[in-house]
Amino acid sequence: MKPRVLIVDDSQYTVDMLREILADDFDVVGETGDGDEAVELYAELEPDVVVMDLVISGTDGVTATAKVKKRDPDATVLILTSVDNRAKKRQAADAGADEYMKKPFDPEELKTTLAELTDA
How far apart (Å, rounded) are the C-alpha atoms in residues 59 and 63? Predict the structure, then answer.
């Protein structure tokens, strides 16, 4: 069974690209560009991993990550963002993010990282 992924990014271009990159090895079970909806979808869909942008509508990615982790401390969250500064990396880590990758990203590196995070 393929690991289940929830994509949280407010760029439809990025969502479409991620769907295409992940299609062979992962099952994208949901997508949203809103942090509040991401928390709700996580509870509803119970994905194996969340790919979360930091700059999204509603609740930002750091806060959404913290809310997901509060609901499920075992949740796996990979931050995938164009924001590249130490403060945001620290905030994401403090919120419980398991990994932090910067856009643009190498598709093979992303798939490898997701496979490692999901033990696939």
Answer: 6
Gap between the Cα atoms of 10 and 52, Å rounded: 10
**Pairing verdict, β 27-32 and 4-8:** parallel
Could you list the residue range(s) of the whole structural domain that residue 30 is in? Answer: 4-112
Q: What are phi and psi for residue 4, nearest 5 degrees?
A: -95, 130
Question: For the chain, what is the domain count?
Answer: 1
Q: pLDDT tens, 59-70? A: 999 999 999 999
For 37-41, the CB contacts below 8 A with 24+ separation are: 38/6, 38/8, 38/64, 38/68, 39/64, 39/67, 39/68, 39/71, 41/6
Alpha-carbon distance values, 15 to 8, 87, 120 (Å): 8, 25, 21
pTM above 0.85, yes or no: yes
| 119 assigned to some structural domain | no
Q: What DSSP character marks residue 57?
A: B
